[in-house]
Design goal:
Length: 154
């Protein structure tokens, strides 16, 4: 379910008041692959519901270059939102998910093992209010960039 950004703070407060352990992650999720699916399943298993912060098209372009994303934000939201592991999707346009995390205040912040505490600015915010940060092992060989490269080689 796609939640409008202006509603996410109240929405997540209600989840917390209902006793839900909220897990949050964020990313571009442009062309979905098996690494993403296993990663999101592992993140969801850390709590009662998973909120996914999805980069807008403009922010993916700024992060990954003019040719990205391949899929629009509404299509990417529909695809990740169809996974059993993902309960709620919210779009964000800022360079990092820090502002969104201030609103969601998840009990657990999950991110792939391609990041560390030092390279993850969001980790400091979560740890400051007593939340947990979890890094999930990468599935080797899976990436959106690799899929695009393979298509170009054919
Ligand atoms: N192979 C993988 N195994 C597990 N988690 C992954 C894998 N690839 C990406 N992730 C995680 O999924 C989230 C979104 O990743 P992202 O959309 O950047 O995927 P990507 O395939 O690495 O993309 P790109 O190739 O465009 O950089 C990130 O938190 C990242 O850590
Ligand atoms: O899909 P990606 O490239 O893993 O997603 C990015 O993650 C960044 C990370 O949280 C470190 O700040 C984030 O800043 C960026 O906006 C993408 O979500």
């Amino acid at each position: 379910m796609l939640i409008p950004k202006e509603r996410i703070e109240d929405f997540c407060a209600t989840l917390r008041e209902a006793g839900q352990r909220v897990v949050f992650t964020n990313g571009c999720f442009d062309i979905l692959h098996a690494g993403h699916v296993r990663y999101l399943e592992a993140a969801r298993a850390l709590g009662d519901c998973l909120v996914l912060g999805l980069n807008t098209d403009a922010s993916v372009r700024r992060l990954k270059g003019e040719t990205r994303p391949v899929n629009t934000e509404l299509d990417r939201a529909a695809v990740v939102g169809a996974l059993v592991a993902v309960d709620y999707v919210v779009l964000f346009d800022e360079p990092t998910a820090e502002m969104l995390i201030e609103k969601v205040r998840p009990a657990v912040y999950a991110k792939g093992g391609d990041y560390t505490r030092e390279t993850l600015p969001e980790a400091k915010i979560v740890e400051k209010y007593g939340g947990e940060v979890h890094f999930i092992d990468l599935v080797p060989g899976c990436s959106t960039t690799k899929i695009i490269e393979k298509i170009h080689q054919r």
